[in-house]
Every structure is written in C-alpha cells, then in structure tokens.
Amino acid sequence: MADLDALLAAAIDAMGKSRPTYSQFPVGAAILTADGRIFSGGNIEVASYPEGWCAETTALSHYVMGQGGTITDICVIAERLPRCTPCGGCRQRLAEFAPPDARLHLCADGAIVQTLTMAEIFPLGFDGDVLTG
Ligand code: THU
C-alpha cells in the first residue's frame, strides 16, 4: 500500500535525523492520519540523560502542532533491533491521540515485521476521560 510505504520511509528518514548522542540507539517513528498526512520524528538525547525523549514523542509533537486528524497507522523502527516496541510512556502518549483500532507497525530493515492495534499493545491503559468529564 502506497501510504504505508511512505509511512515506513518517513520513519526511516526520521531515524536518520534522530540524535542518539549517548545511547547510539537511533529510533524513528511516523504517524499517518486519515487524510493522508504523515508526521514523523526521531529520538533526541541530551547530556542530562533523563531529559531526552523518544522518537514516538517527537512524532506526536509534530502531529499535534500540525493539527493532524484521526490517526490510522504508526510505524516505529530502530536500527539495532529486529522489532522495536514503543516504551511504556510512549504507549500512554500514543493512546492519548491514536484510537484503539489504529494500527502500530513494528519495523526493521526497511520492512514491516509485525502489525498490532493500539488496543493490543496497550490494553488497560490509564483512561483520562475522568479528568475532563
Ligand atoms: N527510544 C525511543 O525513541 N522509543 C522507544 O520506544 C524506546 C526507546 C529511545 C530513547 C533513547 O533515546 C534510546 O531509545 C535508548 O533508550
């Protein structure tokens, strides 16, 4: 599917722009919305190690600032892993914006290795509805 090819290419491109200065562990993420737009990002590390952040978080910030719509697909790729699953914090962040049926594609070596839904990768996540309702 052309959109998925473009999404994977965007994740790989973002991985190339990441800043894994201290871990040497480049990660790229890309988010596809229903209107065909793609928002991507890489992990960014700083000298005070805990202050760095993940690729998924960079991609989400572009998604929010770009006023993206419904998220349909997400690609995540890490150069040094055969299958990079988002960390716990990023699962919570992704679930804030991506619906339970959004597809999460775990990628490696220029290909999608496994596809899950957000509900599958993040069951029983904290539901913030109580905070706004
Ligand atoms: N990292 C991500 O970018 N996404 C994840 O889901 C897991 C970890 C980054 C954070 C840090 O820059 C590096 O990988 C090593 O943990």
TrEMBL record:
It holds the Pfam family dCMP_cyt_deam_1. Keywords: Hydrolase, Metal-binding, Zinc. It is an enzyme of class 3 (hydrolase). GO terms for cellular component: cytosol. CDD domains: cytidine_deaminase (cd01283). Gene3D superfamilies: Cytidine Deaminase, domain 2. GO terms for biological process: nucleobase-containing small molecule metabolic process; pyrimidine-containing compound metabolic process. NCBIfam families: cyt_deam_tetra (TIGR01354), PRK05578.1 (NF004064). Belongs to the cytidine and deoxycytidylate deaminase family. This is Cytidine deaminase. It comes from Roseitalea porphyridii. The gene is cdd.
